[in-house]
Amino acid sequence: MKIEVWSDYACPFCYIGKRELENAIENTGFKGKVDVEFKAYQLDPGSPAESDETMYSALARKFGSSEEQAKSQTEGIKARAAEVGLNYDFDKMTPANTFKAHRLSKFAGTFNKEKEMTERLLKAYFEEGAKLGNTDVLVTLAIEIGLDEKVVRDFLSDDQFATEVLTDIEQAREIGVQGVPFFVINQKYAISGAQPTEVFEQAVKQVAEEEGLRPGIQMMGSGDAGVCKDGQCEI
Known about the structure:
By secondary structure, this protein is an alpha+beta fold. The chain has helices at residues 12-27, 55-63, 67-83, 99-109, 114-128, 135-144, 149-156, 162-174, 197-211, and strands spanning 2-7, 35-40, 182-185, 189-192, 228-229, 232-233.
């Protein structure tokens, strides 16, 4: 089973939706049997690489409200994030152009670390207030998941994987994506938005049944119970 996920690092519902999907895969017993591929999307491609503007100011400007109103509106998102174990800190967040971060995720994929990079970038932005348009910040995050500093710096100084990012965005337009997160399962079913875990569970079960895919065996009990193995028993 393959699930393609269009998302943007500046989208608060994308991190929530990612966690809801992961919980659903875990709960249904299909962990390790579902290939999740993240696709790039940009909600605001024209935003500057870096900004010192507060998120509240940016939201107020965008929606024509006061900063207090903007702050109040983020409380609901924070509560929703907390439901899936995420600790959003809008006080630290600043607007970001995510194109370079999307490129970095693609690059990390050449080292089989795209999923780790995706998670680290999301956590850094929404929980730590990291500036994802800043090269030094991106290098630090890449080092944390095991990538080489010089290799990453050299990569970010070029435009490698820019075409791949733009291709993802164009594919989203072609299939009618109007907002993210957007999930496509086996190029057959689509789910829009950060739906509750139960919605993803139902979708995963349905597709698994169609494919004849059985859930993996889930271990129960403690791991320190008495056991005999390799010709001897632990006493």
